[in-house]
Specification:
CATH topology: Rossmann fold
Number of domains: 1
CATH class: Alpha Beta
Radius of gyration: 20 Å
Distance between the termini: 22 Å
Order of helices and strands: HEHHEHHEHEEEE
CATH architecture: 3-Layer(aba) Sandwich
Strand content: 5-15%
Largest sheet: 5 strands, mixed
Helix content: 25-40%
CATH superfamily: 5'-nuclease
Number of helices: 6
Shape: globular
Number of strands: 7
Oligomer: single chain
Strand order of the largest sheet: 2-1-7-3-4
């Protein structure tokens, strides 16, 4: 939602998602009027700030995400560290040939999922396959952009027109154009920093129940 020009989103078959910006914009609109608190894992926040481009933009993002009425910044604390260790152990059990020293540095996607588990998040919004796999291991639903519904069609507006003393109607078609909301974060996707042309998948958003 922060990135002005994200790369097209892909579905699980690696095919482009139709109207992906509109899907994310519709999700943001629904969350905006809901009573749910949106959790922002600090690793996801870090990627958003990295992609901001300059200090002023980063300060603006921090101000927006610091709105405690709607957002809650979720740290990688001791509870999340315990969840991360258990998640890594599960991954290691599935991939026995992987050396343990590979896991010495915990990846951002593991941290994000562990934070969601520690905070009892009810859902993770992420367009990253690794986050989705980790969510399955921890039994946390992960919603990707391809899973988001399209916004409902806009209704036509009728305006009365005609000469004085007479009545008529003028039908207006909905305005066309694309929105600029980007595919996520939030609570959200992989947080390994990529090129600026890619959507910041670290925009993982967790809804707390």
């Amino acid at each position: 939602m922060f990135h002005p020009n994200p790369a097209p989103a892909k579905d699980r078959a690696d095919k482009p998602v139709s109207q992906f910006k509109e899907r994310v914009t519709h999700l943001a609109s629904r969350l905006d009027v809901s009573n749910d608190v949106i959790g922002i894992p600090t690793p996801a926040m870090a990627e958003v700030l990295v992609r901001a481009g300059n200090a002023n933009a980063r300060a603006g993002y921090v101000t927006t995400l610091s709105d405690t009425w709607k957002f809650q910044i979720l740290p990688f604390d001791s509870r999340a560290a315990i969840e991360a260790a258990e998640l890594i152990a599960k991954i290691k059990a599935e991939h026995k040939s992987q050396p343990w020293d590979t896991w010495a540095k915990v990846k951002f996607d593991v941290q994000i999922t562990a934070i969601a588990r520690a905070e009892s998040a009810t859902v993770i919004y992420s367009d990253d396959q690794d986050i989705e796999n980790h969510g399955k291991r921890l039994k946390i639903p992960v919603i990707r952009i391809c899973d988001l519904p399209l916004p409902p069609p806009e209704e036509e507006t009728q305006i009365e027109t005609g000469q004085v003393g007479s009545q008529g109607t003028l039908t207006l078609s909905p305005a066309t154009g694309s929105n600029t909301a980007q595919g996520t974060t939030p609570a959200a996707g992989k947080t390994d920093a990529g090129s600026d042309s890619e959507p910041p998948n670290g925009g993982v958003v967790g809804e707390k129940g």
